[in-house]
Amino acid sequence: MKHFILSTLMAVMTTLGVGFTSVAQAAPCATPTTTLKIATLAPDGTSLFKGLQAVKNGIKAKTEGCVDVQLYAGGSAGDEKDVVRKMRIGQLSGAALTGVGLGMIEPEIRVLELPFLFKQAQGPTNYTQIDNVYGQMKPYFEQKFDEKGFKLLGWAEVGYVQIFTRDKPIKTRADMGGMKMWMWEGDPLAQAMYEALKVVPVPLAVTDVLTSLQTGLIDGCYAPPLGALAFQWHTKSKFVTKVDLVNGTGGLILAKAAWDSLGAQQAAVKEVIASEAQKLTAQSRTDNAQSMQVLATAGLQIVELDPAAKTELQGISTEVAQKLVGKLYPQALLDKILALTK
Fold this sequence. Notes:
CATH class of the largest domain: Alpha Beta
Strand content: 15-25%
Strand order of the largest sheet: 2-1-3-12-4
Radius of gyration: 24 Å
Shape: globular
């Protein structure tokens, strides 16, 4: 009888213990157990930064307060090369990077930013070719980033790049002669394009562009319309050459060490980032389309390349894409991307 009572009590206590354990695991955290430090070049108040705030709030809600996110906006953590370095040494957990920063980790991803890559005419509701390519290539690049010690958790499209100039418009290749054009420091793709165009660029960090436009150190720069507005580059420009040169890519990533520290919260964080990244891309497309009108209203003159100049530029871009084989990406990857974008 005594043995029966003891056995029964142990069974009840075990059941209660399991119940208490389950409740403890599901209970919200009084204080965060993990803090993710995420950097971006996007200034506070921009749509990208607001998207990252949504990521922060979503992660807090989804993990019931167990994971906190600290955001470092407007280049406060440095240019993207600085951000990548800080992620590698553990000073930052992750970042929202453009293709330039992503390429510092995995150069192959720059194949998605080849000039004039996407042939389908673009519009507010016509991004099927881009979405198809990114959808098909995401598993490939997720694996590539994983091999480099990072988790690619979502695409965050930057938008089509246009050319901004201070004093004269660019309509032909000859118009670039003698102009001091900005190049994002450390960008091998931009370097290759400038070399093919026989233009000597001025390499600078993104955070130095506005001052350099103001002082005349550079005569022009390139950016999506939304980016030019966010960084205030349009205030020192008079002309925009609408050329849709490159569809700028971007992504939300975490360093592998930060990812591993999440433990059981990984699925929740991944779900939030993937969802918000899709919203960010949709918002970026809408905002970039509207930003062209904002630029015109602000007094910038919007011009287009002469047809002959655009044809010439497309030909040069094709040559550059081939020259970068073995430097940024393998031939097989280039062939696959070109087949997907016919």
